[in-house]
Amino acid sequence: MSDLLDFVSLSLLPAWCWRVAADWMRRGDPPDSVLRRLLAACARNEPDRSSAARSLAADAIRRAETASIAAIPWSDAAYPVALTTLADPPPVLWTRGRVAALSAPAVAIVGSRAASPYALSVAEQLAGDLAACGLVIVSGLARGVDSAAHRGALAAGGVTVAVLGSGVDVVYPPEHASLAKAIDQDGAVISELVPGTGPQPWFFPLRNRIISGLSRAVVVIEAGEKSGSLITARCALDQGRDVLAVPGNVLSGRNRGAHGLLRDGAKIVESADDILEELGMDRVAIAGVRPPGADDGRSLDGRGLTPCLPPAPDLVLDCLVPGEACDLDAISERSGLQSPRLLPRLFELELQGLVRRVGGGRFVRVHRTC
Questions:
Q1: Which of 65, 97, 129 is the last residue of a domain?
Q2: Nearest Cα residue to 318 out of 369, 353, 365, 356
Q3: pLDDT value of residue 336
Q4: Cis peptide bond N-terminal to 173, omega within 30
Q5: Mind giving me the DSSP string for 256-314?
Q6: For helices 272-279 and 117-132, what crossing angle results, to 10°?
Q7: What is the pLDDT of residues 15-73, one digit of tens each?
Q8: Structurally, how many domains does the chain consist of?
Q9: Which SS3 state, helix, strand or coil, does residue 124 take?
Q10: What is the extent of the structural domain holding 183?
Q11: 361 vs 76: CA distance, rounded Å
């Protein structure tokens, strides 16, 4: 993609620039213009900063190609639409594994790194049950609850996505390298950081907004009062996602953060059904969803043809004009639905072949003819 170099260069700027960049690009400014203006603002006394940024970006793209890492810029139709709703979306997502996993309905499961056996068991059970229903499990590949959630999803034959606080080729903690490889098979390991970037303490709170941003809901299991999982929960609330929590032992003090969420109104979770109920989902309906383009060899008329029927009236579909790309803000204004409710419906319409995603988090209605 011709603008990939510009987007990678933007990703190398300080994180505060990403919010400004997103505002300008949503307004229609091209990435090369946004990059020039931001460099002029934050590197006034560094005339060579532009060429240096582009050189580093080119090196990152070459490293990614060599390692079979996909670079998905904000303008790419494969970029997760859920992340385009963030105030500061990553300019680029670096991805190992299957890109399609990033656009499926997902639930995040996060919690303590020094988790108790109880928390590990609950995380694995919940992740397995949700994955068996067809939901993608998102977490951070950390020790404790995160890794238990990933393993639970894999054990159930499901799909899971790991969001790293390092480059996707620098797995942290290192003992989870084999787990990351297993996730790659049907899911994805992703990061907003260019390949080769090592883990740093400030990267992990930053990546939490991506964990929540990809997900319909965030489930917190065993979080202390200063747990990083509470950062993910706050991100989820800011993004309009649902927050749920699993109750724990009141004597140990290990779950005061999660209990605080429950006191503030988070839904209590005792089983996967509690999560599905909160999301308005049905086990059978979710498990029956197939990704776009999937074909099970069956047809509706017995002759290998699927009848072309006019779609029933639909609040969201009727907001779109065939051939006219429309962003989420416009669709939300026309339909009266906010992003947390709008995105799942757009996903369903995409699965039905009635809507197609285009770059920059926009959607276009597909004109169907028999």
A1: 97
A2: 365
A3: 80
A4: yes
A5: HHHHHHHHTTPEE-SSHHHHHHHHT--HHHHHT---TT---S--SSSSS-----PPPP-
A6: 50
A7: 788 888 888 888 888 888 898 888 887 766 666 677 888 889 999 999 999 999 999 99
A8: 3
A9: helix
A10: 99-285
A11: 8
